[in-house]
Amino acid sequence: MKAEEGQARAFTVLAVAAASFSMLQSLVSPVLSTIQHDLGTTPNAVAWVLIAWLLSAAVATPILGRIGDMIGKNRTLVVALSAIVVGSVVAALAPNLDVLVVGRVLQGLGGAVFPLTFGILRDEFPAQRLASVVGAMSAVIAVGAGLGTLLAGPVVALGGWRALFWLPAVVVALTATAAHLLVPASPVRAGGRINWLGAALLAAWLVALLVPLSMGDQWGWASPAVIAPLVGSVVLLAAWVVAESRSGHPVIDMRVMRLRGVWTTNLVALLFGASMFAVYAYVPVFVQTPAAAGYGFSATIGEAGRLLLPALVTMALGGVLSGPLAPYVGLRAQLASGSALIAASCAGFAFVHTSAWEIAVESGVFGLGLGIAYAAMSSVIVQTVPPSQTGAATGMSTNIRTIGGAIGTAVTATVLAAHPGPSGLPAESGYTTAFVVMGGAALVGMATSFAVPAARRAAAREPVAATPVEPGAGPVPDLAPGAPASAAVRAGAAG
Asked: Where does the Major facilitator superfamily (MFS) profile domain lie (predicted)?
């Protein structure tokens, strides 16, 4: 009973930590124009409030995830949460945009909360409960991202935009204290050291890729400022793969990335992220468009958030049900069905959007697909990789989803810009085309899901071993989701 109580306390702390970080992006996005006006800056400049957070999180997530695998996930979690607190205070007190961007960079270091959370769940919960708790945590993360859009308007109305930073500062400070007291020390540690060349190359190719993807619509996709870093990102990516493959202490073990359950799921994550982030970004913009444009509902920030409220409910439902359904509806089928629901909702957004209730229903379908697919995706990664690689592997999966989101958002912005309306706003046909493209990405993700290996149910009941894969132990064999990591460890050592 005491063990179960300790697990419940740890899960609660981790859930609050994960939800708090997942809100940090969507909480700020709806009020960028308010921040721009208050700080006297330009739309192009204020965009760095989002981009700085994105870049920082992308770089920190796998690196700190790896450090957590090495020295202890609980200790690294407290450090990541502390970075969020410091960054939130700096942002709340920022007298100008430059200081605000610095605060957002510090907040972004908290991106490691996601992989560390999944790693701690892997360490603390028995194998037979792992799918359920991972699904529930995935639901918390997905709901947190949507909740930010819902809360942004009321929070700003009550306390101004700076309250968007004071609120997480207080909540996360309390959570960091609770994490220090209640989250157990990691029983599984990989040891070793960081390959700093690999870490630097990882940071370099991520920045070279994400900056032009984020700014391409403003800088021009054919401009040297976009083309040069994109080409550079390909070169740096190749150099990173070579460096990590040759390293005895890689940040991301390329043998693990080659596991069929990992690379196929990450490919789905790329496509999934493209649809998910684009819907999050542009459905609120669509419903806030003045009705005089021939579409849209002239909704306020708060009203737009409420139209997405059904998605929060169904996201939670989908994530919570994913684990219990796994013995009957495998993770591969869940990935495919979740992607299909997202595709159906995008089709609805594209062609059925004359009434607010239609958007609300489509939002609910989107949320259900998101909750199911997100939970299944996380479960496949967590159950496929060795325990000592959980933080780094889930961190990299998060990054791949983020890259997909940057691509999807950039494509959507480009499509809308190519369909100008007479009022200066995008034409309705632009949104129709953009939502069709998002739905197409989800359909490709659904097809890709069938390449994910099916779980072996009997193996899923075996205990998960705590033995790490040592560098140089030979290739890690393919491992079906749900199979114990000990199988990979034994076969890898034997090879």
From this structure: 10-457
Amino acid at 18: A
Q: How far is CA 167 from CA 101, 181, 283, in A?
A: 18, 22, 26
Catalogue the long-range contacts made by 99-103 (C-beta closer than 8 Å, 24 or more residues apart).
100/35, 100/39, 100/49, 101/48, 101/49, 101/52, 103/165
Instruction: Give the CATH number of the domain where residue 63 resides.
Output: 1.20.1250.20
For residue 249, what are the CA distances in angstroms to 197, 289, 478, 488? Answer: 11, 51, 21, 18
Confirm whether 206 is domain-assigned: no
105 in any annotated domain: yes
Evaluate whether residue 227 is within a structural domain: no
pTM for this prediction? 0.78
At 225, list the tokens: 């400022």
Radius of gyration of the chain, Cα coordinates, nearest whole angstrom: 21
How many separate domains does the chain show?
Answer: 1
For every one of its 495 residues, what pLDDT tens digit does the chain have, with 9 covering 90 and above?
Answer: 577 777 888 899 999 998 888 888 778 877 888 899 999 988 878 888 888 888 898 888 888 888 888 888 889 999 999 999 999 999 999 999 999 999 999 999 988 898 889 888 888 888 888 888 888 888 888 788 778 877 887 888 888 999 999 999 999 999 999 999 988 887 766 666 778 888 899 999 999 998 998 888 888 888 999 999 999 999 999 999 999 998 888 888 888 888 888 999 999 999 988 888 788 788 888 998 998 888 989 988 778 878 888 988 898 898 888 888 888 888 899 999 999 999 999 999 999 999 999 999 999 999 999 889 988 988 888 888 887 787 778 888 888 888 888 888 888 888 988 898 887 889 999 999 999 999 999 999 999 999 998 754 433 333 333 334 333 333 333 333 333 333 332 223 223
Phi, psi of 420 (to 5 degrees): -75, 145
User: Can you list the alpha helix ranges (DSSP code H) found in 385-427?
Assistant: 390-417
333: containing domain: 2-195+247-494
